[in-house]
């Protein structure tokens, strides 16, 4: 273990006095009841780390690796274990197949458990051709005009479910790059029907207690049409498939300025919201650190989530899939992931702070000014000491990034793995 628990304790001791001052002031402002209620929810709230984002990401123009990347699934689990020991908020890992095939499921499951980790959604990959693959996905997978290609893609998804069963995962995320690059290339109706039929076969292979998440994306790699292009199309597939099928919202998969919070609200109302891929973006699927560009939007999304989940009596921590889907081109991937988790939990905490009774009253009175004040008061209250306190109570670091740097953890990883270690993934 590159980080021992006594090092966390020592670090916290050094910083505790400064933390106490800030926390006590905030707790005084919020009152003991609300403070404790938010703290308990923050401690429960876990966000899954994607196995494909632990190395340095790149673009088609280049990739600039920082060294010490995990070379195997075992090392990836160790990295997520390290994140979890720093923040006690990343107690799950989401795997992408075939980038991270667990050859011995039981051993991998035990290794993860030794780090306090469980397996979140499994992800299939029919957007790339693999070296040993018989048929090509160049013109799509489940939408393909050739039944043999569709069959291969269906079988791959079933294999991914089987891997997931061995690990104790309970869900499959299907993201298809299927679509067309030029007008005229595709019969939209037929592509939809073929895709639906493929998803139906995958759905039929789901274990009783599993969910399937249908992830949509507006464009890329296809630039004219995408066969699961927006939440409406995903909702259509999920509705036709049945009660185990849900829509997955990846924040980077919308056209510019889409009102994601409204999408979230309606999907929840229809009981079809399954989970999230958190990231942030300025343009499209930038896959940047959550909350780095539009923290207010992240807060507004959580505001709808808390409202909608409470309306249905849902458990915030366990009833939806909370996952990060990001890529790190210029930052240390582990530091970046720590920042994302922090931003997500901060938005969640701010949403818990919203006075919903007063907000509803303002809405009923058409008091637009008060409604805005209520939301922005919550958003502008600095709740970071609450997040730090939640970590302190479960023996995580007061400042995860601070401790990561103080202990030179990247340097230690480079010492054991080398500068040229390369991860599979984005
Ligand atoms: C896609 C999408 C999927 C992810 C791949 C790697 O844009 O976000 O969720 O698995 O990227
Ligand atoms: Mn995604
Ligand atoms: Mn994406």
Describe the protein's architecture and organization.
With 426 residues, this protein is α/β, with parallel strands linked by helices. It has helices at residues 5-30, 32-44, 73-87, 105-114, 147-167, 188-204, 231-241, 260-269, 295-311, 333-353, 356-364, 368-380, 384-393, 400-406, 409-417; strands at 49-50, 58-59, 62-63, 92-96, 118-123, 171-175, 179-180, 211-215, 225-226, 245-250, 273-278, 321-324. The strands form three sheets. Strands 1-4-5-6-8-10-11-12 form an eight-stranded parallel beta sheet. The chain has a two-stranded antiparallel ribbon with strand order 2-3. Bound molecules: beta-L-rhamnopyranose and manganese (II) ion (MN) (2 copies).
Number of helices: 15
Radius of gyration, in Å, reads: 22 Å
Strand order of the largest sheet: 1-4-5-6-8-10-11-12
Instruction: Compute the average pLDDT.
Output: 97
Helix content: 40-55%
Which helices and strands, and how do they pair?
Layout: H1 5-30, H2 32-44, E1 49-50, E2 58-59, E3 62-63, H3 73-87, E4 92-96, H4 105-114, E5 118-123, H5 147-167, E6 171-175, E7 179-180, H6 188-204, E8 211-215, E9 225-226, H7 231-241, E10 245-250, H8 260-269, E11 273-278, H9 295-311, E12 321-324, H10 333-353, H11 356-364, H12 368-380, H13 384-393, H14 400-406, H15 409-417
Parallel strand pairs: 1-4, 4-5, 5-6, 6-8, 8-10, 10-11, 11-12
Antiparallel strand pairs: 2-3, 7-9
The structure holds beta-L-rhamnopyranose and manganese (II) ion (MN) (2 copies).
In a nutshell, what does this entry contain?
By secondary structure, this protein is an alpha/beta fold. It contains 15 helices and 12 strands.
